[in-house]
Amino acid sequence: MYRPLRMAVASALMLMAISFAAASSAEAGQNLSLDLHGPYSHGAGYQAAGPVSTAPLKSGEHYFAIVKGTASIWPASQWSLGGSICGASEEKPMFPSPGAVNGQVGWDAETVFAVPPDVGFFHFVCVPSQIPFSAISRTPGGFQINVGGGFGHVVPVGGERSTPTAGHTYTYEVAGTGAPASFRFLDDPVADDYGIFKIEVLDTAECEAIGCKESAGGGSDQIVKPGGSVAGAKIVALPASRACVADRARALKVQFRKTDGVAIASVSAYVNGRKVRVVYHRARGAFAGYVVVTHPPVGTFTLEVRVTTSRHQVLRSRHTYKACIARRKIPVTG
What we know:
Elements: H1 3-25, E1 30-35, E2 40-43, E3 46-56, E4 62-68, E5 86-87, E6 111-112, E7 114-115, E8 133-134, E9 142-146, E10 169-175, E11 180-187, E12 196-203, H2 204-210, H3 212-215, E13 236-237, E14 250-256, E15 264-271, E16 274-283, E17 286-293, E18 300-309, E19 314-322
Antiparallel strand pairs: 1-12, 2-3, 3-11, 4-10, 4-12, 5-7, 6-8, 9-11, 13-14, 14-17, 15-16, 15-18, 16-17, 18-19
């Protein structure tokens, strides 16, 4: 083969290998940094720090975004004004913004835990017993996620938070749509903000390997807010555990309550993390169905039902059941 041609082919193969490796690693284990100081974009009448985005996530697969960090939406000078800080501020961000004046912080991805003296903050009046609080309870912006259906607040694994976690770390479950997952922080302006949120996106296997759901607190009825319109509604109703579940195949009826603003796209179910069969249908515009649990594990087991909405976000409900051994008739002899 002519040498220049050989070199061209070798270069092409090398580029293909690099592209393939990038594509293989693009699905999970991705690390991002969302700097609240900018650069910024515009959204919903506000400025927004970011967005920062992953590579496309596989459609139908479940992913977990672990978000860690602290920040301030006020300039560092605001914290040193005369007067008392409301709440318990921290001396500096966990991850400072380069090129910005970093000072005390009172915000993380889910909560507001401190406010500087004398700030105009959506009619905020300092009442020590009312801080910390959920960021979305008082503000229209904050940390938002988009997996293909538009930006909005997503409820973290473990439920809504009004107090910060010890490590200012939160886990969010989302369903891939073939589009990137994007993250932003909505504020106006962002030029005086500082602090970085570190974001790691894992696939289900990677999450299970480090126990990211368990460390986040877990819990039942983990409801995602589609566009911020639904909060705390129990959409999935699992059957009660009054009696034990036989050791043979057993169908457990599941009800799906119709809720304005939520459209169910698909349903899946897991027993102790193992996927099981779901049979469901639409009845008068709503979902109904049952879960087939074949040969339940000995002792107790946990059934988890996951609903993916038309906005590609995930709702979960869990319940623990007891398995029992079916009694057999003993023949009478003699």
